[in-house]
Amino acid sequence: ExxxxxxxxxxxxxxxxxxxxxxxxxxxxxxxxxxGVPVPPGFxxxxxxxGEYYKSGGKWPKGLAEEVAANLAKLEKAMGMRLxxxxxxxxxxVRSGAASSMPGxxxxxxxxxxxxxxxxxxxxxxxxxxxxxxxxxxFIDMFGDVVMGCDHEYFEEKIHAAKKKAGVEVDSELSAxxxxxVVEEYKKVYKQHVGxxxxxxxxxxxxxxxDAVFGSWNGARAVRYRELNKITGLLGxxxxxxxxxxxxxxxxxxxxxxxxxNPSTGQKEFYGEFLMNAQGEDVVxxxxxxxxxxxxxxxxxxxxxxxxxxxxxxxxxxxxxxDMEFTIQEKKLYILxxxxxxxxxxxAVRIAVDMVNERLIPKKDAVMRVTPDQLDQLLHPHFDAKAxxxxxxSGLPASPGAAVGQVVFTADTAEEWRDKGKKVILVRKETSPxxxxxxxxxxxxxxxxxxxxxxxxxxxxxxxxxxxxxxAGLNIDYVTKKFTTGxxxxxxxxxxxxxxxxxxxxxxxxxxxxPELSGEFGKxxxxxxxxxxxxxxxxxxxxxxxxRARDFGAEGIGLTRTxxxxxxxxxxxPVRQMILAADDYAAMLTNLDMAENDKAxxxxxxxxxxxxxxxxxxxxxxxPLQRGDFEGIFTAMxxxxxxxxxxxxxxxxxxxQDAASQAEMARRLGVKPKVVxxxxxSLHEFNPMLGHRGCxxxxxxxxxxxxxxxxxxxxxxxxxxxxxxxxPEIMIPLVGTVAELKIVKDDIVxxxxxxxxxxxxKIPYMVGTMxxxxxxxxxxxxxxxxxxxxxxxxxxxxxxxxxxxxxDAGKFLGEYVRKGIYKDDPFQKLDQTGVGKLVEMGTKLxxxxxxxxxxxxxxxxxxxxxxxxxxxxVGMNYVSCSPFRVPIARLAAAQAAV
Length: 898
Ligand code: ADP
Ligand code: MG
Ligand code: MG
Known about the structure:
Residues 422-503 form the PEP-utilising enzyme mobile domain. GO terms for molecular function: ATP binding; kinase activity; metal ion binding; pyruvate, phosphate dikinase activity. Catalyzes the reversible phosphorylation of pyruvate and phosphate. Substrate binds at residues 561, 645, 772, 793-796. This is Pyruvate, phosphate dikinase. With 898 residues, the protein is α/β, with parallel strands linked by helices. The chain folds into four domains: 4-243, Dna Ligase, domain 1, CATH 3.30.1490.20; 254-340, D-amino Acid Aminotransferase, Chain A, domain 1 (2-Layer Sandwich), CATH 3.30.470.20; 381-513, Phosphohistidine domain (Glucose Oxidase, domain 1, 3-Layer(bba) Sandwich), CATH 3.50.30; 532-650 and 685-897, TIM Barrel (Alpha-Beta Barrel), CATH 3.20.20. It is built from 35 helices and 32 strands. The strands form six sheets. The chain has an eight-stranded mixed sheet. An eight-stranded parallel beta barrel has the order 25-26-27-28-29-30-31-32, surrounded by seven helices. Strand 15, helix 16 and strand 16 (424-428) form a beta-alpha-beta unit. The longest helix is centred in the C-terminal third of the chain and has 39 residues, at 598-636. It is elongated and about 125 Å long. Adenosine-5'-diphosphate (ADP) is lined by residues 40, 93, 95, 103-104, 108, 110, 242-245, 280-281, 325, 327, 336-337.
């Protein structure tokens, strides 16, 4: 069984398709080797070995040691060097790399193979003792920290002291002798904390380093990162052992990170940073502030030209924006890593659109390049341009967006405060992988050091979080929990705002405004529309909402809730009057029916006519108001279908619950307070969600449904008269049996026919139902004989199918999700196995009877990507969601169609 894969001499045993086995880094190192890109040779221990290692409790599987030895020999031969040979010493890096990229989350050891003899050899050969001592001190530090668990801080103290003593600012200013002294100090630190001398045997070093990389897979950082990013099902990390190249041999050397396009804006330009005379991690760690990539053209034009040529080539090859690491050793360029670059939401959209225009990728690939979450970020607010800004500092615009929050200085505090419901800004000198929990908890991140590719910047962009980095003059004091910029002092808990697009730090809370959606965003949405087959409608109750949704691309309204209109302004009063009279009216009607003789009838007739007058009077007041609402919505949506749902909630929701408001109601409607109190008491229900609501109201008070039906059709006729097209769809809620549906529908149709007669005009319309009672889904074939369309009301359907009260389940649902009983909150993501079965079955049964039955979904799930994918799969005609989710639904529907 093969466990180790070689790359070098222009040929590799692996390739880019083998990510799962070789990890992203290993697979791409192999691919680049095969492409002839200058990559230092090496070999990759497969990810599955990491799994074997854990299974056996940290032992190497049989045969691995031999395979590693054989590949090392091959590497030595390719390089013409040997591990531990002072004359021609091979030095290697030992690098982690899983199938999905987890930047900085696992361990890497550089310069492995150094010992006291090898150092002497290197000094003799290179004549560069400064370089030799520099890599040795780096190696002892990294090996001690990463492999042996001797904290980096202990080493850092020593080099800090050395710099202070020498009176220099940065590491690279230390002389050879000074660095040599640092190495001796480091060895002491190592001995003190590890309890052994620093190992001199290369094979011994290598074995320990490989173990450490395996170990880092289950380190706290890596585990947390996988949790946050929902990365599951991986075999483990691969281990890449690769010949070292050196960016720190002198002024004709350097190292850097580059992107084939700008990861912040998406603009097509070479982008990146580098440091001269530096090694690997110096750029990301934010120790020195790096130089912009374009400046490399001045310092080393040949290497720059070669680098940009390779960038273009690799982007064309991978057909996506690449994030690359490079090192220049004595003017010669090496590529050490390439991967798909993480990008901000605006960059993702722009790159997708540009790459379609450049004919680099087809449209169906483009829609997969932007996640629904990224699109969501674009729909989020930014700072009001007119608002006053008290800018107290500025730095690099590391990750765009607007963040407002209270200042905290540690990742832990950020998490604690977030859990208490506070909005926080995490302020750090620089961030490290340990901080990601706190970065996730924060609204935005502010750092004093580090460049555009520093840890803080890269992680923030990946999270879609606003970040301002490298703010010069930002003095942070972790002890007193304060920072100062110039004359301003900001304490823990103070409010600040960050503008991640401009790199500004602003005192106080800057107001935000809604985003505008045009340009690249609009072009991207058009591409989505060309790919998707599912229709996208919106849930809107007002003309303003309808218009906004239309601007967002909604193709109709899937749900207009009429009850919201009942609360608007003063109209609650006729609604309340109607409710007060409704029961009397119904009771009198029954009494009248049941009266045994004329005398008895006469006795109730008077009371009946009073109640009737009250009730119908209230409905008469409501009719023009509702008609006006519908006219507004129909006008806003002219030409597109509009589904109007009849009154749904239990009537008690319209009555005041506290004594003072009840007294006020009694006064306004001219009845005794007791009458109101009794009415409220009589409408009380133990399970209002399973109570007298939905079509059940229309069964007992048909006049309400008739009034609504009339208002809808009169409004439609009025709008049509103005030359606009109207497509009304009347939706009857909470139907459980076809008989119930038929009674309500017949009433409405009867009323509508009356309207047509009065107006001497007609208009096409539909009557359909919401499928939200499980029985309706189970008998959908019967229901479909009366319903001209179905709309799955999955909020109620979930509630009733699972027996979870929507309003109370929050108390225990979290535990259900944590214990894995349900993978997700079923009210957020449609439970496809259970509730989904009813949806699928209802759709099929309905279409069996009515071939062209229009089927849609309304409710929260209509805007949730995994649920949308499900709706696409079961063949729905459309999903309907809130206006702000419409663009996300358009994208999710396109992705479902790919
Ligand atoms: P990470 O996944 O955290 O980026 P890497 O394995 O990519 O870790 O390595 C960390 C740093 O060390 C990077 O800057 C990388 O370019 C550098 N590096 C890794 N291997 C070598 C090598 N063989 N020669 C020179 N630099 C290297
Ligand atoms: Mg890397
Ligand atoms: Mg419902």
